[in-house]
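Many groups now describe folds with learned vocabularies. In that spirit, our science desk offers one protein's residues alongside their backbone shape tokens.
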Amino acid sequence: MVGSAQDRYAAELQQGEAIAGGLEGVWGWSTLAGKVRAARRARFLTHEARLAPGVRCLELGAGTGEFTVRLAESGCALVALELSAATAEICRNRVGNGARVVVGNAETGEGVADLEFDAVVGVSVLHHLDVERCLQTMHRLLRPGGRFAFSEPHMANPQVWAERHIGAIRRTRHVTPYETAFLPRDLQRAFERSGFDVERCEPFDFLHPGTPAALISAVQRIGAVLEATPIRQVAGSVRISGRRISGRRR
């Protein structure tokens, strides 16, 4: 993580304007394979965070609501936090009454600082942030014993690594200079330092959003096999889940 907080926020707000202007397709959630990937992540978040009616859930980095609408299907009391007003407005229009969409800051808690949650979740959000600061804030917002679940890009994946280290590829993929990615051990240690009990932290998913429709099923079957082997160490994403330890942050 490089640059000041204000530099990073400015870059994210600029990115938000670009996404609202039509850039969102770069991330591939709208392709058929992308929808399959999104559904898998939403199932993971919903299951690991125990989302259900009456559960107060905070989604960090809601963006345009790709996952907000999926999380809302659980019936949880959902608050979706997003830094960019432009993308938050799109999210608000997509989710309707399914969630309360708030413009605020995941690092500082701005917008939700007076609330308490039973669960905090997010997809591809922590790698945009000062993780330690975000987790400290998350610890304050999450009740003792409350659940968390996240999916993030995996630094050991060749494409992800190239997007973070090769300037031309980074620009083509519209990755800001401040974005990073995670190795499972580093992400787990960050959560543990902030007072969380990590129950699962592992690489997963070999399905690329550009996979042709005719090959999706075959790639999923192969991916399921690879995820049970050491080859999983180059999978595209990392998923992590667990709970807040009761008491003060360690």
